Amino acid sequence: MDIVQALATDTASVLTSDARQYLTFLLADAEYGVDILRVQEIKGWETVTALPNTPEYVQGVMNLRGAIVPVIDLRQRFRMERLAPGPTTAVVVLKVVHDHGSRIMGVVVDAVSDVHNVTDVELRAAPECGSTVSSACVQGLATVNGQMFIILDIDQLFNTGELAVATSHT
Amino acid sequence: MAIDMTQFRQVFFEESLEGLDAMESSLLQLEEGTPAEETINTIFRAAHSIKGGGGTFGFQELTSFTHVLESLLDEMRSGRCLVTQEAISLLLQAVDVLRGMLVALQAGTVLDQPRVTEIQTQLEALWHGPGAIAPHPPAVLETAGAPALSPVLGGWHIAFHPCPTMLQTGNDPVRLFRELETLGTLTVRVDMTRLPALADLDPEICYLAWELTLHGAVCREQVSAVFEWVEGDCALSLTPLAAPQSSGGVPSPPSPEPATGVEQCTGVERRQPTVTTDTNSIRVNIAKIDALINTVGELVITQAMLSQLRDGFDMRHLDKLRDGLDQLERNTRELQESIMSIRMLPISFALNRFPRLVHDLGQQLGKTVQLTISGEETELDKTVMEKIGDPLLHLVRNALDHGIEPPVRRREAGKPALGCLHLHAYHQGGAIVIEVSDDGAGLNRDKILRKAREQGLVGEDETPPDDQVYALIFQAGFSTAETISEISGRGVGMDVVRRNIKDLGGTIDVFSAGGSGTIFTIRLPLTLAILDGQLVRVGGEIYIIPLVAIIESVQIDTTLIHTVAGQSPLYKLRDDYIPIVRLGDLFCIQQDGGTGSENLLMVVESAGQKLGLIVDALLDQQQVVIKSLETNFRRIEGLSGASILGDGTVALILDIAGLLRLAQYRAGTSIGLQRAETGRQAA
Amino acid sequence: MASILAVDDSASMRQMVTFTLQGAGYEVVEAQDGEQALGIAQSTKVNLVLTDVNMPKMDGIALIGALRALPHYKFTPILMLTTESAPEKKHEGKAAGATGWIVKPFNPDQLLATIKKVLG
How far apart are CA B111 and CA B103, in angstroms? Predict the structure, then answer.
């Protein structure tokens, strides 16, 4: 559960200026990764309150210690087959940055995997085609210990389209 | 040691702006009658503090202007200059100029120098009387220790004979000698000839005198400077050591060096000073903090008690547990109330700008208006207060521009020439009520009706009741003013006023007694953060309906449902036909059953329009804390936010106005008034 | 360490004076007008009093007179802070029993130098 905490202490020494750390998770048999600095916490899956008139992939909102946080079903966001939540299903709470500040959002993943260091050298650009995930949302590919994962650009992923921040706030 | 003065600047700005407010209200008080001495002193002190602080904290731009202002005020408070109406108006303008300067300095923007010079010149003219040529403001900076103005000699012979009472000013000869020592080599010889016998000695009297010799390249002014504070309390004679002549008597005090010209800003752009009322800090009455501390203290005790119960709990302690939990509920409620009350400020903060505004506007319009304010100590939430300022401003301007008639017309109508404008605030129920009333011409019912018919808002053959006619003035684009004045009358005001008040969760009504005046009544919730809500179940979800929006709830009688082709079904409730809405349809969720008789109909309303919501069950009524959906997501039409229930789950709060818009959009027709408000499309 | 009573109705001035004096190791007590200062003085003895002249409730001149009437303040150094470069205020202060004055605006170093001269 506290992978983030445990690894934070573990990796402090390992982190060099040209390496970044990614939290990886499993989604429909593929591994994805997000910048660990954006991961606020990891929660087990709980029921959420549905929001009306929102895209399918917005499951609803949950209570995170008094804050109302939207929960995004990544499978639906990537138009993959839906899956009922299981024992490994988790919600990764991310800090998403936009022009006027930042927001907290939760994403539902099949399972949380690990934390990996990736140097810039190991980072590869994503291929233009063949992916179910729009290339705009992909920062690159990384391979660690023979395992490849797709690094997601969460700001791109969560600030566009339906999820874009309204430019005028009442 | 270099101390950074900039850290004190923010406090200086805040207190100076407050000082200007005090100055302004004191000046307005002066107008009313004979000046009270204390009022003038307040005005003087404000200018004096700004001048002093300005110089100390590095704002040279302020010193020149404030010096003239302060000097003029000094003349006034000592009676040498008359306090005339004209003078007061000029001083009010000076306050504006200073405010502008402070705001510009605070924001780092350019000063409006021409305006500053203009007012400063007028102030100088008044200070020195007509016909006098205004001299340049005298030196503001008096440097300690003037530079050498006379030839430096080899030293001085100093005869220092203090008055017997010199010690009683706290001055100590030894200190003076120590200071002299820093200038050169000092030899001291004491003269004890006047010292009486021990029995007759009064320890508070100085009986001693001294002859001192100071060797060094020291000029007269440096030596005199050391004795500056005791001149007049002693006999002092300085004899230069190298010179043949001796100069006797008390030397004149060192003349202040003329300061280098006070820097003038070269601002050219005209900038409108905006006084921001939005700050991120709040002033809180200490008593409220103390109350908070007490409540938290009690909470800690309750928590300790419950902890104790938890350790080694058995069923015999059940009653104690219940008591403890009751206490916890009480403590929590008190804590909530305490904290909310901290955000509550008296409405005087919002009303303070009006005396000046009414004064200036009255003059501009050639009308005499007396403004009275009552209930200014009534408290409301800081955020609500910040947002109520603009609507109130519009109402007051309206009253002055269109409500109150010119003196001639008033006399013709048998009214006193002095118009009355009254702002009254009080608490009623869980709300704050603000009344803006004037004794002017009132609303012209026929004119409004005619205009409404022209705009198609009211049918030719319809005769709505008075209150509905008057409410028409809140329609967008509606104005019966013949000429659109700069102040108001463009017809964009009233609907914005109503919308702003609605956004705050409040209402506005207008009443007019033709010819004798108008009253606007604004009702606002005391706080924006908390809502009294009715929990309802719709489908598998729990929603919250604001209590203020609920009119009633009825068990559905299916015989009363009328379906009209092309429109949403209507429910006949007594004499009204109310459109029925299924939340499931609006929100695209599953809802229990159909419009069966086991369903409940919640009759709710927003801005006069009624709506019937079909819900599956009524649950609790409770106070809920409103959480924004926009913080981490976005605004959703039909919802005004979310709340967290006791079990930790999230419940959505319904926004009736939004639901109406959604329903209208879906139905494609308008409900109620023929000209419906343009609705926002559901995203 | 020596203690100083600083009296001024301007919060920013008080802050600046306190900050400067505390930085030099003095203990500082603040008052916002003559009345409050007198109240403090009646129960506390300080080594030096620094007071503004123009204040509500009781101004600097009146405060100086009142302090001198207190037995334990008879010989305490009292300095006036004045922006008046005109002589009358200084003379008024002296007549009431002030030890000396510091002219506003002053910079922190001037303040410290003057106080050092007085307190040693």
Answer: 9
Does B139 fall in a domain? no
The percentage of residues in chain B with a pLDDT greater than 90, rounded to a whole number, is 10
Number of cross-chain residue pairs from A and B with Cβ atoms under 8 Å apart:
75
B37 vs C: CB within 8 A: no
Instruction: Report the gap between the CA of A78 and the closest CA in chain B (Å).
Output: 19
Give the total number of structural domains in chain C: 1
Residue to mutate among B336, B585, B588, B650, with most A CBs inside 10 A, is B650
Buried b (16+ CB within 10 A) or exposed e, B196-228: eeeeeeeeebbeebbebbbebebbbbbbbbbbe
Same domain assignment for residues B53 and B122: yes
Q: Which two tokens stand for residue B42?
A: 């307040």
Instruction: Indicate the average pLDDT of chain B.
Output: 79
For residue range C90-111, what is the model confidence (pLDDT) as tens digits? 888 888 999 998 988 888 888 9
Are B332 and B464 members of one domain? Answer: no
Assess B375–A contact: CB distance below 8 Å, yes or no.
no
ipTM of the modeled complex: 0.87
Residue bearing the bigger pLDDT, A108 or B70: A108
Query: Are 3 or more Cβ–Cβ pairs between A and B shorter than 8 Å?
Result: yes
Specify whether B58 is located in the same domain as B193: no
By DSSP bridging, strand A58-64 and strand A67-73 are antiparallel
Higher pLDDT, B464 or A166: B464
Are residues B568 and B619 in contact, defined by beta-carbon separation less than 8 angstroms?
no
* Pair of tokens at residue B252: 């004149």
B400: DSSP letter? I
Domains and CATH numbers, chain A: 3-159 (2.40.50.180)
Q: Is the pLDDT of residue C61 over 60?
A: yes
My answer on whether B495 and B538 are in the same domain is no
What is the reported pLDDT for C76?
A: 92
Dist. CA C3–CA C18, nearest whole Å: 11
Q: How far is CA B505 from CA B347, B470, B633, B658, B677, in A?
A: 17, 21, 22, 13, 18
pLDDT at residue B245, rounded to an integer: 40
B586 and B657 both lie in a single domain: yes
Residue A12 has pLDDT above 70, yes or no: no
Of A47, A70, A166, the CB nearest to B632: A70
Q: Which of A86-90, B262-266, B286-290 has the highest mean pLDDT?
A: A86-90
Report whether pLDDT(C7) > 90: yes
Rg (CA), chain B: 37
**Domain range for B310:** 286-342
The answer to whether C and B touch (≥3 CB pairs < 8 Å) is yes
Q: Which residues of B touch C56 (CB under 8 A)?
A: 41-42, 45
Q: Which pairing describes strands B650-654 and B541-546: parallel, antiparallel, or unpaired?
A: parallel
Residue recorded with tokens 């233009």: A128
Rounded Cα distance between B654 and B641, Å, is 8
Rounded Cα distance between A148 and A22, Å, is 12
**pLDDT above 60 (res B264):** no
**Could you list the residue range(s) of the whole structural domain that residue C14 is in?**
3-119
The tokens for B72 are: 């003029």
pLDDT-derived band at B528 (thresholds 50, 70, 90) equals: low
Q: Work out the average pLDDT over B485-502.
A: 67
Which has more pLDDT, C82 or B509? B509
